[in-house]
């Protein structure tokens, strides 16, 4: 006898199977990551087709039998359709999805991370949003939720005050002053503007994200110092299965695209295809 569960969720991944059905990976409030079948979703009149598109957010009614979920019905809350119209935003959303998948465990609730993903998808859908700022906001807040927030207010080693540029040290767990950098032998230079941007992201209101604009120098500096910091903590604590390659590729693309004109935005920071992304 099937049991029914109602939950709010975002579609992280979907793949067609058999003639007319789909399998989806959902990130669900109170449930975490779950897989579910959407039988007949590809039939012409099925309401489940739209509900199983990438980044659709809605309320799902799931039947559960012998440990398997089947989507009985779904109601849209936010379909996030705007993402498919902008390749740079879609690439950013795919990166956020990959980040979530890398740290999620099947069936284990991660409600704060779920909320963060929803907030960031909403922000990306706003016409004036800057995907680079949304990505950084997500990374900073996700690291905080995962317990890896770097110490940014003062030197993580000696507690001394920091002004302007500082060095980000994975070993120290945050910014360090020049004296501690020499002692530790570990740290990558963060320019004053990058430090200010990262600090801002720690407390910034997501509803006002569209007023923040990253720029070339900050992006290049983040790729050199912030991305390795993320990799260091994520690698030590999760089974990432290829995510670090994507993280490096994303940072490298961001860095190499710095200074290019906006006409080149069709080149994705990470690969995506219509099916199976
Ligand atoms: Zn110090």
**Main sheet record:** 5 strands, mixed, barrel
Instruction: Please compute the radius of gyration using only Cα atoms.
Output: 20 Å
Strand count? 8
Helix/sheet category: alpha+beta
* Residue-averaged pLDDT: 88
Coarse shape: elongated
Tally of DSSP helical segments: 8
Q: What order do the SSEs take from the amino end to the carboxyl end, as H and E?
A: EEEHEEHHHEEHEHHH
**Strand share of the residues?**
15-25%
- Weakly predicted, low-confidence segments: 259-276
Distance between the amino and carboxyl termini: 33 Å
**Bound molecule types:** zinc ion
Strand order of the largest sheet: 1-2-3-5-4
Helix content: 25-40%
Write the layout of secondary structure elements.
Elements lengths: L2 E15 L3 E8 L3 E7 L9 H4 L5 E9 L2 E11 L8 H17 L7 H15 L5 H15 L20 E4 L4 E3 L1 H7 L3 E3 L1 H12 L12 H22 L5 H15 L20
Parallel strand pairs: 3-5
Antiparallel strand pairs: 1-2, 1-4, 2-3, 4-5, 6-7, 6-8
Short structural description:
The chain is an alpha+beta fold and 277 residues long. It has eight helices and eight strands; from the N terminus they run E-E-E-H-E-E-H-H-H-E-E-H-E-H-H-H. Residues 259-276 have low confidence and may be disordered.
């Amino acid at each position: 006898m099937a049991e029914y569960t109602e939950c709010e969720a975002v579609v992280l991944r979907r793949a067609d199977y058999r003639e007319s059905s789909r399998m989806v990976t959902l990130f669900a409030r109170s449930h975490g990551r779950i897989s579910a079948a959407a039988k007949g979703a590809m039939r012409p009149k099925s309401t489940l087709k739209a509900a199983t598109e990438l980044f659709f957010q809605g309320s799902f009614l799931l039947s559960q039998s012998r440990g398997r979920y089947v989507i009985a019905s779904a109601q849209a809350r936010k379909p996030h359709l705007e993402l498919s119209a902008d390749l740079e935003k879609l690439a950013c959303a795919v990166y956020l999805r990959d980040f979530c998948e890398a740290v999620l465990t099947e069936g284990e609730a991660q409600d704060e991370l779920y909320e963060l993903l929803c907030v960031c998808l909403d922000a990306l859908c706003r016409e004036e949003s800057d995907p680079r700022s949304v990505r950084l906001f997500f990374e900073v807040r996700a690291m905080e939720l995962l317990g890896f927030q770097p110490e940014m207010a003062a030197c993580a080693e000696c507690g001394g005050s920091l002004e302007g540029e500082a060095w980000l040290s994975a070993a120290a767990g945050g910014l360090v002053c020049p004296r501690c950098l020499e002692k530790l032998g570990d740290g990558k230079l963060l320019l004053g503007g990058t430090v200010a941007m990262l600090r801002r992201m720690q407390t910034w209101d997501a509803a006002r994200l569209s007023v923040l604009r990253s720029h070339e120098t900050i992006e290049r500096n983040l790729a050199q110092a912030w991305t390795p910091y993320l990799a260091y903590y994520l690698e030590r604590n999760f089974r990432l299965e290829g995510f670090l390659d994507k993280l490096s590729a994303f940072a490298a693309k961001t860095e190499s695209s710095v200074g290019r004109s906006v006409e080149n935005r069709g080149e994705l920071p990470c690969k995506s295809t219509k099916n199976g992304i």
